[in-house]
Amino acid sequence: MDPFLALLNSFSSFLSDAELASLKFLCRGEISKRKLESVQSGRDLFAILIEQQLIASDNVLFLEKLLKNIKREDLVSQLKQFEEEGEVSAPDDQPDAHEKRLQKAAIEVICDNVGKDWKMLMRKLDISEVKLERIVAANPYNLREQLHQSLREWQKWKGRDAKVTDLIKALRDCKMNLVADNVEQKLLQLNTETR
N or C terminus of the chain: which is more exposed, having fewer CB within 10 Å? Predict the structure, then answer.
């Protein structure tokens, strides 16, 4: 079962008729009047939003704005939790705690030091152009956030196979040796702190 659809289904059951009416009104600029008239539940509305690619499991910004607008902060926080945890995947597909800590540190260094050439790095990590464009569209004026979201996408996609050594290799392949050195230095510092 798709965890995102399960989340939307639970949201639907929490919406009152008045809230659904408000959501339909807010979507008038995005969805045709005829389609909106056919909407009888939150599920119907979410299905149209997915169909029109206004929301997806990796693109919840529009949904977040809608929920904030109808003052459903409880649903917004559930949505943010889903976003942070990513797609619910089996625990055995996740890197161990030590690798996660190293990844977090490496991503921080990369986000602080890689600039406009970030897409070249993501291509070396085999992230598709479609995903990159979706991330850029979701964060049009924030280069750092585009890079950060792309790296998170890489982590989700690779799961347990997401290794910091792959990040360093990709940096070196892109001739970003100074950033790769900074990442290695940060990891060395982390490893000595844990001993």
Answer: C
pLDDT along the chain (195 residues), means of 10: 86 92 94 93 94 89 94 89 62 68 92 93 91 87 91 85 92 95 93 76
Tokens of 90: 């089996």
Q: What is the distance between the alpha carbons of residues 21 and 23, in angstroms, rounded to a whole number?
A: 5
Nearest to 164 by CA among 190, 146, 131: 190
Domain boundaries, the chain: 3-85, 92-194
Cα-atom radius of gyration of the chain, to the nearest Å? Answer: 20
> Which amino acid is residue 58, in one-letter code?
D
Query: What are the DSSP E strand ranges found in 56-154?
Result: none
pTM exceeding the 0.90 threshold for the entire prediction: no
| Domain at 3-85, CATH class | mainly alpha
